[in-house]
């Protein structure tokens, strides 16, 4: 009997019932999961004194022992918009904060286990530069555990950046698609346009690239915040196209998400693809929000905000609610999307943006040169940093989702109902102190001694990025 199971038993009052339940759970698991062996290895320890754990409610604690999770320098694929140390940032405290949920502990991060989890899978990030930031974080997190002899590459193709760790069959991709639907901002490199034109009803061009992903992670907020945008009915360049400039930022976002949801409903393989939507990533341009003088922003900030419940004035709850209700509505149509509520935990981190310590892809104006505040990037996040937490957290959720998928829970309950008429406390897997044990999984490493490092590295650094402030 494993340690996990002992703990479970020990903490329950009615050992006998607990034992029956446990057996039922295990048997159900064996029969009902696709991946039953792995599943058993990943069982978590339910904790009776904590009915559930909201991973997004907690605080940042300084932890210079286990953080940072990787070194910026070892991260060969990170873009220059996120490498703050390289661009002269001297205070490195921002790399050493750990997110501590109130009611449970996150498991220790284990890159090898993460890579193992991605073996044979395609993980796809879709969205704007914040998802690109997170995509970069994901690459940084796994890179140290890829043996140097393994071939890995980063390829730029169309609107995608594709990372492949060949021996693991793992593909991690990012698709630039800042508004999810089609727009005139869809070029991976050149997307700065005067007037944003959006085809709110057209998504196929992007979405056809999503269908073979095992894990799909969306984000889209920032690009909708412009006060005015032009909606397009019909195709770009078509003579009968209709253009209409509109305000109504919430309404147009709603329209686009409805196009997104309709497409998802009919094209996502529910048996294969796990879906996530990132909560909006907050920015820190208004120093007044945390008690600074007018005109101050994230520049020169070196500490998180400790005021629990802090909510920046520029975070648009309305936009978040639109996503939440789109997701809720999709669920009623039988498609589950996990919403990763990272807004508030990130909102505490005024210290974690690049501010002036990044590469700029356009030349600075006179004001920007004279006054550092005016060129501060308070949108993206330095790496190592906040997106690492989004990633670790997400993977956790993924494991939990695997175990707690509604269908399976139903099956277990049905099985139990058949087996015994127990008026049982339902076994609902919960977030608890997790210890995932992957060590009985064989870690295959073909590793023919091949070229050190990445064949596409110079290619990527010769590219000019223009993630800008969005
Ligand atoms: C359950 O969680 C509580 C609060 O976090 C903790 O004090 C307790 O030790 C945990 N119990 C077990 C069995 O892990
Ligand atoms: C971690 O931080 C503590 C307190 O700031 C300090 O005393 C200690 O030397 C630091 N340890 C390392 C390994 O940097
Ligand atoms: C990778 O995929 C190929 C083809 O699908 C398969 O033959 C091979 O065994 C896989 N390798 C690993 C390490 O999973
Ligand atoms: C998904 O799984 C269900 C039940 O396991 C099965 O009936 C269905 O055909 C599967 N769908 C696809 C697209 O594989
Ligand atoms: C930045 O912070 C340091 C230390 O807190 C302070 O001495 C300095 O004046 C600040 N710089 C600006 C431009 O506010
Ligand atoms: C997201 O988390 C915040 C607190 O961190 C909470 O107020 C809000 O209700 C949560 N939203 C959802 C949809 O769970
Ligand atoms: C993980 O499981 C293996 C075999 O199943 C066992 O030998 C090992 O001690 C376990 N590790 C931990 C940390 O529980
Ligand atoms: C991380 O996971 C790997 C593979 O699952 C395992 O061999 C290793 O012991 C783990 N490391 C830690 C520190 O738990």
UniProtKB/TrEMBL annotation:
GO CC annotation: Golgi apparatus; membrane
Protein name, UniProt field: Trichome birefringence-like N-terminal domain-containing protein
GO molecular function, one term: O-acetyltransferase activity
InterPro entries: TBL (IPR029962), TBL_C (IPR026057), TBL_N (IPR025846)
Membrane topology note: Single-pass membrane protein
Species this protein is from: Fraxinus pennsylvanica
Spans through the membrane: 12-32
Domain Trichome birefringence-like C-terminal: 106-391
Family matches, as PANTHER family: PROTEIN TRICHOME BIREFRINGENCE-LIKE 34 (PTHR32285:SF239), PROTEIN TRICHOME BIREFRINGENCE-LIKE 9-RELATED (PTHR32285)
Keywords: Membrane, Signal-anchor, Transmembrane, Transmembrane helix
Compartments where found: Membrane
Primary location recorded for the protein, binned into one broad class: membrane
Family of this protein: Belongs to the PC-esterase family. TBL subfamily.
Domain of life, per lineage: Eukaryota
Record-annotated Trichome birefringence-like N-terminal domain positions: 52-105
């Amino acid at each position: 009997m494993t340690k996990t199971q002992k703990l479970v038993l020990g903490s329950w009052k009615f050992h006998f019932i607990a034992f029956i339940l446990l057996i039922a759970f295990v048997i159900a698991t064996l029969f009902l999961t696709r991946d039953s062996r792995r599943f058993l290895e990943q069982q978590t320890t339910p904790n009776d004194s904590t009915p559930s754990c909201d991973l997004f409610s907690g605080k940042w604690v300084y932890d210079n022992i286990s953080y940072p999770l990787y070194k910026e320098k070892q991260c060969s694929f990170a873009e220059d918009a996120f490498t703050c140390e390289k661009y002269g940032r001297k205070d490195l405290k921002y790399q050493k904060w750990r997110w501590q949920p109130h009611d449970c502990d996150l498991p220790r991060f284990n890159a090898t286990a993460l890579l193992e989890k991605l073996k044979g899978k395609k993980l796809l990030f879709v969205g704007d530069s914040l998802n690109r930031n997170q995509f970069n974080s994901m690459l940084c997190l796994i890179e140290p555990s890829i043996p140097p002899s393994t071939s890995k590459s980063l390829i730029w193709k169309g609107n995608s950046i594709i990372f492949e760790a060949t021996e693991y069959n793992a593909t991690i991709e990012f698709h630039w698609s800042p508004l999810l639907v089609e727009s005139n901002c869809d070029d991976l490199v050149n997307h700065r346009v005067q007037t944003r034109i959006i085809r709110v009803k057209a998504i196929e061009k992007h979405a056809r690239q999503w269908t073979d992903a095992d894990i799909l992670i969306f984000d889209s907020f920032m690009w909708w915040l412009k006060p005015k945008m032009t909606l397009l009915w019909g195709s770009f360049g078509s003579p009968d196209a209709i253009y209409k400039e509109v305000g109504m930022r919430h309404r147009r976002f709603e329209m686009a998400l409805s196009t997104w949801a309709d497409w998802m409903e009919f094209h996502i393989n529910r048996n294969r693809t796990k879906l996530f939507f990132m909560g909006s990533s907050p920015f820190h341009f208004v120093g007044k929000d945390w008690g600074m003088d007018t005109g101050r922003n994230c520049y020169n900030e070196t500490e998180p905000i400790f005021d629990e419940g802090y909510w920046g004035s520029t975070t648009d709850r309305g936009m978040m609610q639109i996503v939440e209700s789109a997701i809720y509505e999709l669920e009623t149509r039988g498609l589950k999307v996990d919403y990763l509520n990272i807004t508030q935990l990130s909102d505490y981190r005024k210290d974690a943006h690049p501010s002036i310590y990044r590469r700029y892809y356009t030349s600075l104006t006179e004001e920007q040169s004279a006054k550092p505040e005016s060129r501060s990037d308070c949108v993206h996040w330095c790496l190592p940093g906040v997106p690492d937490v989004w990633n670790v957290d997400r993977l956790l959720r993924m494991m939990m989702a695997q175990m707690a998928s509604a269908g399976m829970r139903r099956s277990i309950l049905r099985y139990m109902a058949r087996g015994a008429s127990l008026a049982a406390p339902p076994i609902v897997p919960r977030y608890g102190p997790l210890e995932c044990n992957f060590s009985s999984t064989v870690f295959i490493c073909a590793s023919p001694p091949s070229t050190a490092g990445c064949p596409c590295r110079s290619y990527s650094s010769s590219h000019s990025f223009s993630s800008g402030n969005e």
